Amino acid sequence: MPSLARLHLITDTRPGRDPLSVVRAALTVAGADLVVQVRVEDSATDREAYDLTRRVLALCAPYRATCLVNDRLHVALAVGAAGGHVGADDLPVAAARRVLGPTAVLGATARAPGTANEAVAAGASYLGVGPCHHTGTKTGLPDPIGPAGVRAVVDAVDVPVIAIGGVTAARVPALRAAGAYGVAVVGAVSTAADPARATAALIEALTC
Ligand SMILES: Cc1ncc(COP(=O)(O)OP(=O)(O)O)c(N)n1
Ligand SMILES: Cc1ncsc1CCOP(=O)(O)O
Ligand SMILES: [Mg+2]
After folding, report:
1. What's the pTM value of the predicted model, to 2 decimals?
2. Is 110 in the pocket of ligand 2 (CB under 6 A)?
């Protein structure tokens, strides 16, 4: 299995966004060094999620970039994506692992060492850890854990930690110093005036 890319771009499907053009731009810069996670609004139908994921997968394929699906693991299986990501409101990690099979990429959300350990024991192959900073992309989240919170999880597990929540290129060095393997972003790329340039800045920050 290829190693996990350090930059995870999560699709922004809020009204008025154009997730496919953002994914296209990011891929031209990052290529295989990108994970694209398809995340749709809870109100989206399975058919909408399926159609978007098929399109994202088609964009990723020529670059050999990894495509994951948030929450809806049946969609991941249906399109042949590399795996999925689950959190507290989704299938439990062990159940998600059974659904996806032993070799799929499976991410799980954690914000503390205890839940992080449980997720890894249940079969998570990476952890999404946060929110690290305040974010305008998702509401109802607990307080940000900052780089120190990331460090606490990193020290507890032996899988890659992907920091999420308010991540910008400027914030990457502190997160990497805290032991984060990589970062997941929505707004830093999708609301940028130039998503390709924003992707390049994140890649550069992650490679320093
Ligand atoms: C890489 C990564 N980390 C965390 C999340 C959040 O997942 P979850 O807690 O299930 O929340 P939703 O994204 O489903 O609203 C993620 N998607 N990706
Ligand atoms: C889905 C999710 N889970 C925790 S923060 C977040 C949103 C991250 O978006 P942004 O990169 O715009 O802060
Ligand atoms: Mg979820």
Report:
1. 0.98
2. no
